[in-house]
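Quick question about two entries, pasted in order.
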Amino acid sequence: MEYRALGGSGLHVSRIGLGTMAWGRDVEWPVVRELVHDFVEGGGNLIDTAPAYGGGVAEQMIGKLLATGIPRDSLAIATKAGFVIRGGRRIIDTSRAALLNDLEGSLRRLRTDHVDLWQVHAWGDAPIEETLSALDSAVSRGLARYVGVSNFVGWQTATAATWQEAMSGRTKLASVQVEYSLLARRAEVEVIGAAQYHTLGLLAWSAMGRGALTGRYRRGIPKDSRAASEHFGWFLEPYLQPRSRAVIDAVAKAADGLALTPAQVALMWVRDAPQVASALVGPRTPDHLAELLEAETKQLVPPIVAALDDISGGPNQFRITD
């Protein structure tokens, strides 16, 4: 699999990353083990997780993988801090103490002495200089190799990057992670521009529109689907509205004409978009992962890309055209 530098850093990540949000709830240990084995065999290295995923279970599974034979140096492990779910409530705490406590917990669960990428999961109420000082501390202590931010809007991304660039002793950000797909192109308004200016790699989560772009929901909601579950139904609901229909149908039509699957088309559009270092996917079965890995040797031709741009919101101002 092709690797890309994460922004201006020395970290190289596979251009498809494995997301773990559903691990421990919809994806159990035997399947996780098979998914990671197939992913690494296919050349992938980036696994993105967080303490909030499964209440820490996703990180525990990665730790179990490392303890049962997956070589540590075969993975680029990215985790986050500052966002947890307690008692059904979402809590954002980006204070220095909370972030470093989160990191210590992550390292215990991951059974490793460092993570390759540590990200602030969300913008919080703590002063940004306090939040970012935790990143500097983690890198200086060898607990994290590189750092980034997640779910920051454009001005927040630029503010954080500028603060870290202002003095030589601070650790420059390597990345910004944000939702980006044919159904979620808001990142093009300001985030991608900020990432480009500050040389940050973009990690695009939910590259397949939270699953809506796979075409699985074109004729309803299957009973065994993520959209039908109590815990993930809310996650899919915004993209199962009539306003998404034209984009989903266009992806399916392109897939039919190219002898591809809708998931492959949606993935390639994100994977090869400007500033994207890695498109994050969350397959729940080895067959779905195999389908996505098959897209590695394929590329969408410019007319198809332009047509998908047009139907999903208009031209991408960052795309270089011949």
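Here is the second entry:
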Amino acid sequence: MKIVILDRKTLGKDISMEIFSKFGTVVSYDVTKENETKERIKDADIILTNKVYVGKNELENSKVKLICITATGTNNVDLSYAKESNIEVKNVAGYSTSSVVQLAFSMIFYFVQKLNYYKKYVDEQNWQKSDTFTHIDMPFYELDGKKVGIIGLGEIGRDFAKKALVFDCEVFYFSTSGQNQNSSYKSLSLEDLLKTCDIISIHAPLNEKTKDLLKYKELSLLKEGAILLNLGRGGIINEADLSKILDEKEIFCGLDVVGKEPIEENNPLLKVKNKQRLLLTPHIAWASIEARNRLIEKVALNIENFLKK
């Protein structure tokens, strides 16, 4: 078998691809541009793609029998054409839950504990000049008793909720599909969740129901001092409206995803004046070492199961 990895760089140099050698010859490309895909996969039996799009134009007249998506989302593959052409498509789910939730809480602590301010205070050599043993000019808070709202109570949302309970938080949720009837936590309307919760964390997919779910009107409902997180998908929060309200109201926002990635130079979020209210990370929530190793193992298992047929 010939296995082609289209965007090896997205999986990290610290993760080995050696496991795939047992299935055949492995050809690996760090990055594949749109006009390079067709040529690179034409003789492949199996292809691995994280974000490189593979559709009819790329697959036509190729030998591809299996597409392994090294992620959960499947929007980078033309599923209809693959089905018509008897090309199997396999993704991987559930590998990054702990990693995503860990970043969510890292962002919460960053804002709640005001770590950026206090690190800067010490780094700028102010502590040694103090006339008292402590410096508490920037108030910080405890998580105990805080109201936490979750938008999207899937596997990741449920894990986030479970860990929020450990900090004695009160957990609520809004179901973006309207189908979730989880009895462990109280369901709220989107409006009530935004109005009442101290911390709101988004763990929802991007679809017709969630696109621009939070625009200026919804963002205006947030309490002063509220923390809003998006570790779901870019596009759920309207970025122009968010950048506007961050300079108008004292709310805090942690984002690991944006609508177009990598972030574009003209993205309004990069022009926010109150930068202490915004924490941007470059889509890393999924990518702990453990999560990426689990991902590769599950991709290998997908190939193994396919070859057994």
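Reply: Residues 289-307 form the longest helix (19 residues). The longest strand covers residues 147-151. Hope that helps.
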